[in-house]
């Protein structure tokens, strides 16, 4: 652990514990014990447990957003193909993104009556995901010649539900296959909508 600051140790410990046990079941004492730091050190960096939870959430989101944004889809000019390449990038990145589970999803199932601030943070993240991905999927909807095509927002919500549901299965089965299989199925549906498969991948 040499070179890792006390704050980083606390964030690492809190993330691991909250993913495994949930936010409400993770105590300040357990975070300090697992991080190997004093409670005074924790309160030096974070005024409350909520502050710690929000910091862990922000770090987790920033790390995963960087992985998702820096994919090969950035080099694809055609917007419909870019959407397909992006979804394939999600498949390829699944182990890096969700091997330990989804921190946001775990919080969302653990928020009832626990922390309004954390609940609001989770809701904001999910709404932002849907809005951003609706923009990504809009060209697919516009290009499709099929009838009764879902709206871009519906596709984005479906994509989010696909990811979150498959993460639950992945944790239950202790393997990543449910995530990659489910997201691949979503990509194939997009291919059906536009009547063409994913093009040659951009390296």
In the CATH hierarchy, the architecture of the largest domain is: Orthogonal Bundle
The CATH topology of the largest domain corresponds to Tetracycline Repressor, domain 2
CATH C-level label of the largest domain: Mainly Alpha
Computed structural class: mainly alpha
In total, the number of strands is: 0
Major sheet details: none
Fraction of helical residues: over 70%
Say which CATH homologous superfamily of the largest domain is assigned. Tetracycline Repressor, domain 2
Uncertain parts? none
Number of helices: 9
Question: What is the CA-based Rg, rounded?
Answer: 19 Å
Q: Strand portion, in percent? A: under 5%
Give the overall pLDDT as a whole number. Answer: 92
First-residue to last-residue Cα separation:
35 Å
Please write the string of helix (H) and strand (E) elements: HHHHHHHHH
Instruction: Count structural domains.
Output: 2
- Name the overall outline: elongated
Plain-language structure description:
The chain is mainly α and 203 residues long. The two termini are 35 Å apart. It has nine helices and no strands. It has two domains: 46 residues, Arc Repressor Mutant, subunit A, CATH 1.10.10.60; 134 residues, Orthogonal Bundle (Tetracycline Repressor, domain 2), CATH 1.10.357.10. The longest helix has 28 residues.
């Amino acid at each position: 652990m040499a070179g890792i600051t006390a704050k980083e140790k606390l964030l690492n410990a809190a993330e691991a514990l909250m993913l495994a046990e949930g936010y409400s079941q993770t105590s300040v004492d357990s975070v300090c014990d697992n991080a190997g730091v004093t409670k005074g050190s924790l309160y030096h960096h974070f005024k409350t447990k909520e502050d710690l939870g929000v910091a862990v959430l922000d770090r987790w989101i920033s790390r995963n957003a960087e992985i998702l944004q820096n994919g090969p889809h950035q080099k694809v000019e055609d917007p419909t193909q870019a959407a397909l390449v992006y979804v394939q990038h999600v498949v390829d990145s699944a182990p890096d993104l969700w091997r330990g589970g989804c921190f946001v999803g775990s919080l969302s199932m653990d928020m009832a009556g626990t922390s309004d601030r954390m609940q609001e943070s989770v809701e904001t993240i999910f709404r932002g995901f849907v809005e951003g991905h609706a923009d990504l999927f809009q060209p697919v909807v516009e290009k499709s010649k099929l009838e009764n095509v879902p709206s871009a927002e519906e596709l984005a919500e479906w994509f989010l539900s696909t990811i979150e549901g498959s993460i639950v299965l992945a944790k239950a089965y202790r393997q990543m296959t449910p995530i990659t299989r489910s997201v691949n199925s979503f990509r194939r549906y997009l291919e059906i909508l536009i009547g063409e498969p994913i093009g040659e991948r951009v390296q």
